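User: Structure please.
Assistant: Input sequence and predicted structure:
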Amino acid sequence: MNNILILYAHPQGRRSAVNGRLIAAAAAAGVAIHDLYERYPDYDIDARAEQDALRAAELVVCQYPTYWYRPPALFQLWIEMVLTSGWAYGPGGAALVGKHFWCVTTTGGAQSAYAADGIHGFDYETFLAPLVQTVRLCGMHWLPPWIIHGAPQLSSAELQDWVARYRDRLTRYPAWLTAA
């Protein structure tokens, strides 16, 4: 699975009950994983190494827990340091054109909380707009995100189902793009 790169941005890393299981399944499937908090605990991002990894990937997966309606801070810094003008976008910036980008995220709240009449006042996809635009600016193809709502409340069976489907998606890329 050398053509898939997972950018994993979770401060709790593999200790996360849900994201940790998803990442373990991806690792078992042989997917390349850049655990940003493990690699850059001091937030000193090696932009060149990250760009090299992106260049080699066909599918870029960003996986993270949602904190206050957005990815954790290190992922935002990663975007700023790695997706530079002249490399990822702008004049001469075509390194990512045509690649697929898939967002896999978890929330603590139920799906019903992310609606006009819910506590958060918007559908979850509304909060993804800056990331969607970043991906499009870089010429990548935004794939429908996987949003695992109510992660802390998942039963063992529900979690196992998400893990199995995640591994299946990763191992069947790119075939599932046409099946969706």
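The radius of gyration is 16 Å.
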